[in-house]
Amino acid sequence: MNNSHVQQWVSYSKLAFTSLLIYLLLFQFNLQQMRELLNLVNPSLLVAAIFLHVAAFFCGNVRWWLLLRHVEPSCPFHKIAPAYYLGLFSNNFLPTGFGGDAVRTLYLTTQGYSISKLLSSAVVDRVLGLLVLLLTGLITALVQETFTVDKSNMLILLVGALAVLLSGWLLLSPTLLNWLRTHWSSTRYQRLHRILFSLLEIFHAYRQAPWLLLSGVLLSLMLQVLVIGVYVLLGNDLNLSLPLAAYFIIIPLVMLITNIPISFGGLGLRESALVALLAGVGVDYQQGVLLSLLYLLVLCVTTLHAGIV
Q1: Can you tell me the distance from the alpha carbon of 63 to that of 261, in angstroms, rounded to the nearest whole number?
Q2: 40 close to 289: Cβ distance less than 8 angstroms
Q3: Is 175 helix (H, G, I), strand (E, B) or coil?
Q4: Which long-range contacts (CB under 8 A, 24 or more apart) does 192-200 make?
Q5: Closest to 253 in 3D by CA, of 280, 214, 287
Q6: Which of 152, 164, 221, 257 is the most exposed place for a label (fewest CB within 10 A)?
Q7: Sign of the CA dihedral 14, 127, 190, 110?
């Protein structure tokens, strides 16, 4: 079976799984109750949520640009921004096996940028984002006292944070690079060795820039707070009686689950995870479904225009 057939089967599997999740999500859909909830939606708050999400994406855009500029000084922001939004569009709308990181990297290679530098900056960008995402949920779960946090959720956040920390340490420390230099002498994998060695050398350029990494962490934190703010606005609009701390624990878990590449753009997976986690803290099923659909609407409005790229 060649690569194109494998890709087709992966796409068909994702489509089937996405369809199943959406069906299960809407199976208990009460249209009458949903209409009553929709009457509560304030259009001005919906617009405010859209602007918050635009600001969140801008933080992510600036974070990646700063990281890329450190290893590729000749990259102006106005050339990087379209690639970033193209990645967002790919994540949410294109039925492909490529992630947004891969798409924006491939796009910029056509503009003459080094693929190794693009990949390195994208990996560091993703590691910083995931680390702050997980730590946001974990720290909130540890310090808040407003409600009881499920132990399984705590374990997911803790294991995820440790895994990302270990990955970041391997990338930025000289340990893996030195191991490749001294132990990997096989001629069979020389090309792979050269690629890995080149990438790790670029990663080490970030090790010499702690203030840049700190800026990336702060931008990641701003991004997470803004996205959580979108959910808070929409949740308050639907009269969800949730403490603020609940959003800071639930939304990182939802965003983490959405990154699992088993559905198209996280569609169905993100919504099902949100409804299930909200149900665990006493939120009505219909309210959870409508909140997930309103967030999907905000996400579509803030990324659909990137298709112009």
Answers
A1: 23
A2: no
A3: helix
A4: 195/116, 198/116, 199/116, 199/119, 199/120, 199/123, 200/171, 200/176
A5: 280
A6: 152
A7: positive
Q: What is the pLDDT of residues 247-288, one digit of tens each?
A: 999 999 898 888 777 767 677 788 888 888 888 888 888 888
Strand runs labelled E in the chain: none
For tokens 């203030």, the residue is 211
The more confident residue out of 217 and 164 is: 217
- Could you tell me if 136 and 224 are in contact, meaning their C-beta atoms sit under 8 angstroms apart? yes
pLDDT digits (tens, 9 = 90+) for 191-243: 666 666 666 777 777 888 889 989 999 999 999 999 999 999 999 888 888 88
What per-residue confidence (pLDDT) applies to 97?
44
Residue 124 neighbours by CB distance under 10 Å:
26
User: 177 to each of 184, 193, 239, how far by Cα in Å?
Assistant: 10, 10, 53
User: pLDDT at position 227, please?
Assistant: 95
E strands of 165-225, at which residues?
A: none
The two structure tokens encoding residue 56: 């969140």
Give the CB-side neighbour count of residue 28, counting CA atoms within 13 A. Answer: 11
CA distances from 237 to 66, 282, 300 (A): 36, 17, 19
High-pLDDT (> 90) share of the chain, %: 17
